[in-house]
Amino acid sequence: MRGEWATIRIGVAVSPLESNSGDGYIVRDYGGQTLIVVADGLGHGLRAFEAVDTLRKLIELAPVMPLPDLLLWCHKQMRQTRGAAVAALLLDRAGRTVTYSGIGNIAFWHIITRVGVITSKRMVSGILGYREVAPTAITFSYVEGDRLLLHTDGVQGNLRAHLEIWHHPPERTALDVIDLFSTGQDDALALVVRLGRGDPQVLEQVCTAKPTE
Ligand SMILES: [Mn+2]
């Protein structure tokens, strides 16, 4: 399809347990580089929301710096909050690379759609804003059309069991991930990226939480 990879297309589906979601995301574009952050405030409800909201404000005003430095800079200023699990990605369109860094339990997957390979990437343990953290950064290459998935721990299950969802537009895949895998016992957020050449475009959808079985 012509122009298929014209944009970095980002689909987000959020399923909050309460009126304020303790799971959140931030996308910032620097022209050629795109920063994507997903965060899960400890627990859920208002105080979890406040931790992620503090992080959002920090990321929005942060100067450009390497991802581990950015996370440490936020960490120091989040000590009065409950803390959050955080994953940060920096997409470089010219070099076709993804650099990632994270603290705590945010899952990160790279899906090479054309061959159906799904790789999980590990984050360093800890909680941003609490005790000591030691973020590191890892870089890998991508091909346009590959997908990335970030999700919080309100999503659990075998993502490799449903390969068909990776061929959908990212906003649809994000909804599929929530429908198939949200636990219904925590806030849940799935952010899917279809890698491309142009400026990022974000499509967000809020879903109602599943009733707990
Ligand atoms: Mn959670």
From TrEMBL:
- List the Gene3D superfamilies hit by this protein, alphabetically: PPM-type phosphatase domain (3.60.40.10)
> According to the entry, what is the taxonomic lineage of the organism?
Bacteria, Bacillati, Bacillota, Bacilli, Bacillales
Q: Which superkingdom, per the lineage?
A: Bacteria
Which residues are in the PPM-type phosphatase domain? 7-195
A Pfam family the protein falls into: SpoIIE
* Name the record gives this protein: PPM-type phosphatase domain-containing protein
